[in-house]
Amino acid sequence: MLNKNPAWRYVLVIGMLLLALVYALPNLYPEDPALNISATRGGTVAEQTRSQLEQSFRAANIAAKSVVLEDGQIRARFNSTEDQLQAREIANQQLGANFVTALNLAPATPDWLSAIGATPMNLGLDLRGGVHFLLAVDMKAALDKNLNDLVQTFRADLREDKIRYRTVQADIGRGQVQVTFRSTEDLTAAEAALRKRDRELVFTTSSDNLTLLVGISEIRLKEIREYALEQNITIIRNRVNEIGVAEPLVQRQGADRIVVQLPGVQDTAQAKEILGATASLEFRLVDTEGDLGSALEGRVPPNSELYYSRDGRPVLLEKRIMLTGDHITGASSGYDEYSQPQVNIKLDAKGGTLLSAGTKNAIGRRMASVFIEYKPGTEIGADGNPVLVKQQEVINDATIQARLGRDFVITGINSPAEAQNLATLLRAGALIAPVQIIEERTIGPSLGKENIELGITAIQWGMAAVLLFMAVYYKAFGMVANIALVANLVLMVGMMSLIPGATLTLPGMAGIVLTVGMAVDANVLIFERIREELLEGRSVQQAIHHGYDRAFATIADSNITTLLVALVLFGIGTGPVKGFAVTLAIGILTSIFTAVVGTRLLVNLIWGGRRVQSLPI
């Protein structure tokens, strides 16, 4: 018999609606204004700290919903943003500089929903509030670093091949490495050996045939820029995770820009300090043969460089870098046997091998840890931003007692807070190239709340208009379409909450409003087709059957083309455009499902397989 629902249709529709409803429920629980207090700037998060903070809130008549210790952080929830801001002032006064206090919004999802992975939709910066940064990556510093690495590599390779050379130095201005020899035979042998090791380098010879000029090919330059950008994105994500920001957005923009959005965070100073920090380490041997007095007078040995420690003491170090911070995989602060702060370092396999080989014949010599940081200087660049200045200082220099491996410690640090800060930056990773914040925007939670309220109001008015039109024009069939429209909205919210990485933005809410209007298009096509079948003299059951079957091709064709446009917008668009494309694409899929499968289930259930003489359509 025509228009009978098979069992799979009941299972599919009811199962999809229940699943969507469960995962949409967390959105009914508003987020709480919260404080995230962590020890990434020094100090220790302990139960005693949490208890003291809770007592301070109570003494100041601040009604905290909860103050708990979670994942090594204190999370305090409040009823209003006013209590949140007042609590932050108290926390900063009580805890001091050893703790990071970040304003955030904490989800209030019940435990039973959290247990099954149900979470509210990720809200974009325009809805939730937070901070937006546009970072510029200093590609020149990345290229300069690559040239300096080539200098160290060439020296090691030439020594390994037993080829004598006079000097190996980087010409930063011309973007090349100059290797000078005593004879043309040595130059020819060196060029053959170096070309064999790396075929993407460009080799030329000076007019005197004693200097080999080594440049970097365009392919390699492009790889260096891409690597610097992608690695910086990864490292910045790690740093954001260190301060406990939920649903951060870190993505590239153009050839040398990185967009960072931290929803729920209002403290821009703390965020800027973490993002812009460029701390790195280099380990070099102390030059014990060079004359420090001559170096202070300007006569620095050719294979050495003059550095200063934090207390102003001059230190003469070899140019050869034994190890860089790129190989650090773990770092934690602690104390030595004299209760002095130290940083425990763990290296990757390659770093352990390099350090082991470098210290094999250096037992009894001193090794220095050089701390490198880039900070904005007084000079203004062509782009209107301050030029970053490289600052270097010796943290400590200690005698190598035994051959070092993948685990060692750094001592000579001034305070536990400094040790904790250094460990945090090294653990998150040293930036491949310095970054500079060239754009900064802060969106308050009140503005985000207003955007949400206006967006919901627009959706409600749009829904009301469509529901009224369908009920008046298509009567009982219009009510079926209205039920499908409500189900479509539940499915959209459920899918947005279920899909990892999907974020609802203000343009995304516009996409929902548009989808509400488009969702009934498929029902209009079906209902009009049923009317035509009835006018042609077909029976009620045949009209319903042919109406759904023959309208499907038109529905699929029109919606697939719109879906392709949404996919293109998502692929090439920026943040706001992507938000619109996500909700549009999801809305198209859910509207096809509710119109073709959902309404057919209801129509068949009410009128299918029965002796009906007419339809209320």
TrEMBL record:
<dbReference type="GO" id="GO:0043952">
    <property type="term" value="P:protein transport by the Sec complex"/>
</dbReference>
<feature type="domain" description="SecDF P1 head subdomain">
    <location>
        <begin position="305"/>
        <end position="433"/>
    </location>
</feature>
<dbReference type="GO" id="GO:0015450">
    <property type="term" value="F:protein-transporting ATPase activity"/>
</dbReference>
<dbReference type="Pfam" id="PF21760">
    <property type="entry name" value="SecD_1st"/>
</dbReference>
<dbReference type="InterPro" id="IPR048631">
    <property type="entry name" value="SecD_1st"/>
</dbReference>
<dbReference type="Pfam" id="PF02355">
    <property type="entry name" value="SecD_SecF_C"/>
</dbReference>
<dbReference type="GO" id="GO:0065002">
    <property type="term" value="P:intracellular protein transmembrane transport"/>
</dbReference>
<dbReference type="GO" id="GO:0006605">
    <property type="term" value="P:protein targeting"/>
</dbReference>
<dbReference type="InterPro" id="IPR005791">
    <property type="entry name" value="SecD"/>
</dbReference>
<dbReference type="GO" id="GO:0005886">
    <property type="term" value="C:plasma membrane"/>
</dbReference>
<keyword id="KW-0811">Translocation</keyword>
<dbReference type="InterPro" id="IPR055344">
    <property type="entry name" value="SecD_SecF_C_bact"/>
</dbReference>
<feature type="transmembrane region" description="Helical">
    <location>
        <begin position="508"/>
        <end position="530"/>
    </location>
</feature>
<comment type="subunit">
    <text>Forms a complex with SecF. Part of the essential Sec protein translocation apparatus which comprises SecA, SecYEG and auxiliary proteins SecDF-YajC and YidC.</text>
</comment>
<protein>
    <recommendedName>
        <fullName>Protein translocase subunit SecD</fullName>
    </recommendedName>
</protein>
<dbReference type="InterPro" id="IPR027398">
    <property type="entry name" value="SecD-TM"/>
</dbReference>
<dbReference type="Pfam" id="PF22599">
    <property type="entry name" value="SecDF_P1_head"/>
</dbReference>
<feature type="domain" description="Protein translocase subunit SecDF P1">
    <location>
        <begin position="229"/>
        <end position="287"/>
    </location>
</feature>
<dbReference type="InterPro" id="IPR054384">
    <property type="entry name" value="SecDF_P1_head"/>
</dbReference>
<feature type="transmembrane region" description="Helical">
    <location>
        <begin position="551"/>
        <end position="573"/>
    </location>
</feature>
<keyword id="KW-0653">Protein transport</keyword>
<dbReference type="Pfam" id="PF07549">
    <property type="entry name" value="Sec_GG"/>
</dbReference>
<comment type="similarity">
    <text>Belongs to the SecD/SecF family. SecD subfamily.</text>
</comment>
<feature type="domain" description="Protein export membrane protein SecD/SecF C-terminal">
    <location>
        <begin position="435"/>
        <end position="596"/>
    </location>
</feature>
<keyword id="KW-0472">Membrane</keyword>
<feature type="domain" description="SecD export protein N-terminal TM">
    <location>
        <begin position="2"/>
        <end position="103"/>
    </location>
</feature>
<feature type="transmembrane region" description="Helical">
    <location>
        <begin position="579"/>
        <end position="603"/>
    </location>
</feature>
<keyword id="KW-1003">Cell membrane</keyword>
<keyword id="KW-0813">Transport</keyword>
<dbReference type="InterPro" id="IPR022813">
    <property type="entry name" value="SecD/SecF_arch_bac"/>
</dbReference>
<dbReference type="InterPro" id="IPR048634">
    <property type="entry name" value="SecD_SecF_C"/>
</dbReference>
<dbReference type="Pfam" id="PF13721">
    <property type="entry name" value="SecD-TM1"/>
</dbReference>
<dbReference type="InterPro" id="IPR001036">
    <property type="entry name" value="Acrflvin-R"/>
</dbReference>
<dbReference type="InterPro" id="IPR022646">
    <property type="entry name" value="SecD/SecF_CS"/>
</dbReference>
<keyword id="KW-1133">Transmembrane helix</keyword>
<comment type="function">
    <text>Part of the Sec protein translocase complex. Interacts with the SecYEG preprotein conducting channel. SecDF uses the proton motive force (PMF) to complete protein translocation after the ATP-dependent function of SecA.</text>
</comment>
<keyword id="KW-0812">Transmembrane</keyword>
